[in-house]
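Example record for the data management plan.
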Amino acid sequence: MNKAAKIMGISFPKFTMDQCLQILSDVAGRKKTELFHVVTGNPEIVMSCQHDDELRGIIDRAGLITADGIGIVMISRMRGGDLPERVTGCDLLIKLLETGDREKWSFYFLGADEPTSLKAAEVIARKHPNVSIAGRHHGFFKEEEEAKIVEEINAAAPDFLIVALGAPYAERWIHKYRNSLNAKIAIGVGGSLDTIAGKVKRAPEIWRKIHLEWLFRLIKQPSRWRRQLILPRFAVRALFYREKS
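Corresponding structural encoding:
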């Protein structure tokens, strides 16, 4: 059985991207029972779980947690956890779309602004013609509109519900409706639709290979500096965190 690496009390299974894809392929191929919630766990989520019991409960209940960020992987290795690689929301979504093109999976996309949502759907339809785009809705909705969105998702009955509302809001939203959503798998993917639509440029592959994607994003979006202050705080706290047995 695959063991997990603990980061500040959160258990990250030691799965590679290929293993995660296999797990999700198996779930997508089964008859729906309950919603399978995938959390792409980044340092921000891990830090929030330290003082937010509700979020911690959501994460603990997830069907799968992936290591979204090199910081998670590096801390794991420094503490002997040895996570094999990072599995980010963006990379996972891209791989799922590639696999979905072969398997003819259906997707519902929730998130981003309306022009970005529309553009992302157009790009996906062009690159992956065998993927069924069961529906989409922008992420700038009011609470009173949520019931209608859930109805629309349920009518579409997608294999994958892709929620691009940002962490940890996406995780809370999925959990809020997990017992009424007619989808097999729900995944929070951060700003991945912005990347697919071309609104945000992703770091070149060489930057990703040397684990400096975060720096590339900071250079391109200097306004992110406040958000990225959490990274050194996470590194220090996680490195010296005393895990409970």
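Summary line stored alongside the record: The chain is about 50% helix and 15% strand.
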